[in-house]
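Deviations from the work plan: none for this task. Representative record:
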Amino acid sequence: MDREQTCSFDQRVWRLVEQIPRGQLATYGQIAELIGAWGCARQVGWALRRLPLPSAVPWHRVVNARGCIAMTPSREGSDWIQRELLLAEGIPVDGAGRLPLARFRWQPGARCGASACDAGP
DNA sequence: AGAATGACGCTGA
DNA sequence: TTCAGCGCCATTC
């Protein structure tokens, strides 16, 4: 905790997550890749786990590549909070914790007018 | 020092 | 489509 340097892995993750626009979702692998830690999706999960609540970081917008909330007993219910926050963001969450990730995927640098706005057929 | 863990990702069946 | 196993890499004991 003494190290409050912006070079910390956690700091980079939190910083990036803060830049996720409301109503959009990002995956751990996506975050890891953006911070230059390709393949370190797990480390991103730890960074969020160490995140103090309440926090100004929209960690609830970060989900796994499967597009579902990681419901693990380790969080003691924080996963449940995530679902509530996502619903508040306007993102429908399935009863199993699955989200339409394909439709809410956050694309850094992408504009609303981009063709990637919707993957609709 | 080494071994075990884990809010993940991908491939195969 | 869903379920299971293996691999990646930093943190923790």
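Chain A has a mean pLDDT of 83.
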